[in-house]
Specification:
heterodimer; A: 490 residues; alpha+beta; Cytochrome Bc1 Complex, Chain A, domain 1; six-stranded mixed sheet; 19 helices; 12 strands; 47% helix; globular; B: 457 residues; 3 domains; five-stranded mixed sheet; 17% strand; disordered N terminus; disordered C terminus; Peptidase_M16_C (chain B); signal (chain B)
């Protein structure tokens, strides 16, 4: 019996040593072992829709209210359904100027008092003018939610445009736009988009010369008139999330915004007209001191209403969505070492869109980079290297992993619900419908849609960089390029 | 009765406000409220080889962030090898003895994860944001590249071109970065802060594969690293992975160079001309290592001077006198002595000198007259807000604790800072600022438009 016990003990000790030794020593880290560890399929996520109440004032102003008691904070996102789309050639840039001024001074608060009120209560408020609407973003601790509502009411209803702050802001804006002529990325934006969008407000907003002309003449009355035309309560919607008492907040909102009346105005909006003259064109903006050829290749694309957005999005992820495993990164960075980064993106707006590829490389490699991009486009267009099921799966798997993180906070979910319901006529379940849609895609479908919507024959290219180093490559290859001098305004 | 009270309140709002205000003043002196922060729940442990782990569980979503910090950055680099830490960071994605090039990315991508890395002055970190189920994959990949990185000459040279491209794009082609790099080099010659993180172009071109390998072997050892896992994870699972993948790694002797940062004795001025319409003015001041609690007072001072909307520079120099377009200030906290940078953008090149004089005047005014209770209260309120908002994201909380751990071995430095701040007076702030923001201990630097030529001091 004793002998048996000894053997048993010894066996246990040996087994223990063996097990412990195996755990502590380096694993057999073969590629197959890693593959086994990576055999993970993420579940299709389900984003929880917050329990919100839609509170609408008689003037049409809407508040989506959802409580969240997890932290003592108060967060607001919102939209004014107006923006750069409402500008014309003679007031390009007025939306941005207006929003900047709105944050500085009101009828009741001088500039100094307003900034003090914000800081003493630790309130954050920002307005950003976009193509189709002005977005609002604000937050505070929940103990200062009333002050934040008061601040929003002041800034939105009673902005003051006359005064020293006006003159100073205009002067600062002029300096800012002049500075854009020294910045490669800003020059690229200007020459690409003002050509792509042409005689449309979207284009005016990238035409810094036009904006500088406007700023040279602008008067407070013009900004005030634009404010009256665009800022109307029926145009405004908010998402509010945080630690608040629902009834008290509704009362607060009512007392601050209910008396605000709508004004009558017609906001004309039109679609972008495609300009065939820029198709296939290559423009070099001569910036002698640039160490880079900063390049953008692209074309006019669909508006927000494009029905194939989701499959196109997944296809573009595989093609050039910015990750190191995308086709463009593999070719131009991993294989050729031309670029640090390269990405392809869509820009959807209500009245037009764009699809383009951005890259930045040594000036002497500009043509080689451009050809490598076209080569990748043609592989898909011609079906010689079709998207694989594996490529699609990896991106679906990625989205399934990142969606819960992207919508981890209630305010972000509510914000998306508000935007999609109010401006795109979608349901509360929009996010989950998107998840369902991309999860149901096949590589054939994605390949087909992407190949159909890639148009290498109409690509318009802008390159910002030293023309002396860039131009000869194109000339030697028999390609026509137009060189424009970077004319810096005085 | 309630109705009566409501009526009184609504009719006599002004009177009520006045009474309340007077009562408030009498009962509560205008002092800043004490700051408070709920410490996050976290666990830490260490392996026998010196590798340390911190785990920050948060089960709200099925995702984790697996980060590895190495206690090495650009301040540790030798002469002629500037940028080697950043260069090595790039190579860490190129393959190991067990995995071919690109496979680390492929594996993480295939599980729906994202990975990246960043090099700083005094540490380098790598992270994987992956589904919670991929904990073991992240641990295995990180342990593999901690020990088994390969150095292939051809691949090194190809990546060298990518890094040179990155430098051209981020530094050489950017007026602000290019100018700041030169000014800082002039301010701190022959010190660990002379060069930027990305290194000089000449050094990037000449760093050899052998030097990269030596740098890797010198600093990428378990006793010079910290692993931090935050998110949907249990501490026991991390302990298991630690044993399985890192326990048999051997520690290495870490040799540090002599960190010299001589005290500036007199003011220096450096001007460079670049193609820009806007001038930039920088003021660099030496500060102690980042674990010195006095830096909390320095941060408060800089917010009051340059960062807040109601800051002295914005209120007076920008809004009132229209001498500048913008101002900002920052402290570059490191494990060794470093610098604070204040910059402002004069409204036009002809106003550089006037703006500089006005800046000096404001500085003097604070030292002579102090800061107000209101200014002090604003900073504390904003700090309290940022502490509360930081609790929204466990990953950023974990990062704060991890950086304080890797730099100073003081993971709870934030708590100490809060306590310190609660005992700080506005007089202390000025007294401490005066110690570090002396004229004879600074370097002024100017980026001026080429066409104007010459320095204007």
């Amino acid at each position: 019996m004793k002998k048996t016990y000894k053997i048993l003990s010894l066996t246990i000790i040996i087994l223990f040593l063996f097990t412990f030794g195996a755990a502590a020593q380096n694993q057999n880290l073969s590629p197959e072992f890693f593959r086994e560890l990576a055999d993970i399929v993420n579940d299709e996520p389900k984003i929880e829709i917050p329990d919100y109440e839609l509170f609408e004032l008689e003037n049409g102003m809407k508040f989506y209210l959802a409580q969240d008691k997890s932290l003592p904070i108060f967060e607001v996102k919102g939209y004014i359904n107006a923006g750069q789309i409402n500008e014309n050639k003679n007031n390009a840039g007025i939306s941005s100027l207006m929003t900047e001024l709105m944050l500085l001074e009101t009828e009741n608060y001088s500039e100094q008092k307003l900034s003090l009120f914000k800081e003493i209560n630790a309130l954050s408020l920002n307005l950003a003018a976009g193509f189709d609407r002005i977005s609002i973003s604000a937050n505070s601790l929940s103990t200062e939610s009333s002050e934040l509502i008061s601040l929003l009411a002041e800034v939105l209803q009673r902005p003051k445009f006359e005064g020293d702050h006006f003159t100073r802001t205009v002067k600062e804006s002029r300096q800012y736009y002049k500075h854009q002529f020294y910045n490669d990325s800003a020059l690229l934006n200007m020459h690409f988009f003002k050509n792509l969008y042409g005689q449309h407000p979207y284009g005016y907003n990238y035409d810094y010369d036009l904006i500088l002309d406007f700023l040279a003449e602008v008067e407070p009355t013009q900004v005030k008139a634009f404010y009256r035309k665009t800022l109307r309560p029926e145009n405004i919607v908010f998402a509010v999330s945080g630690n608040f008492d629902l009834d008290e907040l509704k009362q607060e909102i009512k007392s601050k915004f209910a008396a605000w009346e709508n004004t009558k105005s017609d906001l004309n909006k039109s679609y972008v007209s495609v300009n065939p003259e820029i198709q296939q064109k290559i423009i070099i903006i001569n910036k002698e001191d640039a160490t880079q050829a900063n390049m953008r290749m692209g074309y006019n694309f669909y508006s927000n209403k494009f029905p194939k957005k989701i499959p196109f999005m997944m296809a573009n992820r595989i093609f050039g969505g910015g990750s190191i495993s995308s086709r463009l990164m593999q070719n131009l960075r991993q294989d050729k070492g031309y670029v640090y980064g390269i990405y392809a993106q869509t820009k959807y707006s209500d009245y037009g869109g764009a699809y383009f590829i951005n890259l930045s490389l040594e000036p002497e490699k500009a043509l080689a980079g451009m050809e490598a991009v076209k080569e990748e486009i043609l592989k898909i267009k011609n079906g010689t290297e079709k998207f694989t099921e594996k490529e699609l799966f990896e991106n679906i798997n990625l989205y399934n992993a990142i969606y819960p993180k992207a919508y981890q906070h209630q305010i972000d979910v509510l914000d998306q619900i508000v935007y999609q319901k109010e401006f795109n006529n979608k349901s509360d379940n929009y996010i989950n419908n998107v998840i369902k849609q991309y999860n149901g895609l096949s590589s054939e479908e994605v390949q087909k849609i992407f190949a159909e919507e890639l148009y290498p024959e109409i690509i318009f290219t802008v390159i910002v960089g030293p023309a002396e180093k860039i131009k000869p490559q194109f000339e030697d290859a028999g390609l026509e390029v137009e060189v424009l001098e970077n004319s810096i305004p005085n | 009765m309630n109705k009566v009270i409501r009526t009184f309140f609504s009719v006599n709002k002004k009177v009520v406000f006045l009474i309340s205000f007077l009562l408030f003043i009498l009962v509560f002196p205008v002092t800043a409220a004490d700051l408070d922060l709920d410490q996050p729940e976290y666990h830490s442990f260490e392996l026998e080889n010196g590798l340390e782990f911190m785990v920050f569980p948060d089960h709200s979503i099925p995702s984790i962030k697996y980060s590895t910090y190495y206690n090495v950055g650009s301040i540790d680099e030798k002469e002629g090898q500037t940028g080697i830490s950043h260069f090595l960071e790039h190579l860490m994605f190129m393959g190991t003895k067990n995995l071919p090039e690109g496979e680390i990315d492929n594996l993480i991508t295939s599980v729906g994860g994202q990975l990246n890395a960043a090099t700083f002055y005094d540490f380098t970190f790598y992270y994987h944001q992956v589904p919670a189920a991929a904990l073991e994959l992240a641990a295995a990949l990180e342990s593999d590249r901690m020990r088994n990185l390969t150095f292939d000459q051809q691949k090194v040279n190809r990546e060298r071109e990518v890094i040179k491209q990155e430098r051209r794009m981020r530094v050489d082609n950017n007026i602000f970065s290019k100018g700041f790099e030169e000014i800082k080099a002039y301010a701190y010659p022959d010190t660990y802060l002379e060069h930027g993180i990305i290194g000089w172009m000449e050094d990037i071109s000449n760093i050899t594969t052998a030097e990269l390998k030596e740098h890797y072997q010198s600093y990428y050892s378990p006793n010079n690293a910290l692993v931090v896992v935050s998110g949907d994870v249990k501490v026991e699972a991390v302990k298991k992975m630690a044993q399985k993948y890192y326990a048999d790694f051997k520690p290495a002797a870490i040799k540090r160079k002599d960190f010299k940062f001589p005290k500036e004795e007199s003011e220096k001025v450096y001007t460079l001309n670049l193609k820009t319409n806007l001038p930039y003015a920088f003021q660099l001041y030496q500060i102690p290592a980042g674990d010195q609690l006095e830096l909390t007072a320095v941060e408060i001072f800089l917010d009051i001077l340059a960062n807040n909307q109601s800051s002295r520079l914005k209120e007076k120099l920008q809004k009132k006198e229209e001498l500048i377009l913008a101002s900002a200030a920052t402290i570059n906290t490191l494990r060794k002595e470093s610098f604070a940078a204040i910059y402002f953008i004069p409204s036009n090149p002809d106003l550089v000198e006037t703006a500089q004089q006005a800046f000096d005047r404001e500085l003097k005014l604070i030292f002579e007259e102090g800061i107000t209770e209101q200014e002090f209260k604003i900073v504390k309120k904003q700090y309290q807000k940022s502490l509360i908002f930081s609790q929204k994201n466990i990953d950023s909380t974990a990062e704060t604790y991890a950086i304080n751990k890797i730099r100073f071995n003081k993971p709870e430095l934030l708590q100490q800072k809060i306590e310190y701040m609660n005992n700080l007076t506005k007089e202390d702030v000025v007294q401490i600022a005066e110690k570090y923001f002396k004229k004879n201990q600074r370097t002024r630097g100017y980026i001026l438009p080429e066409a104007k030529g010459g320095a204007q001091q």
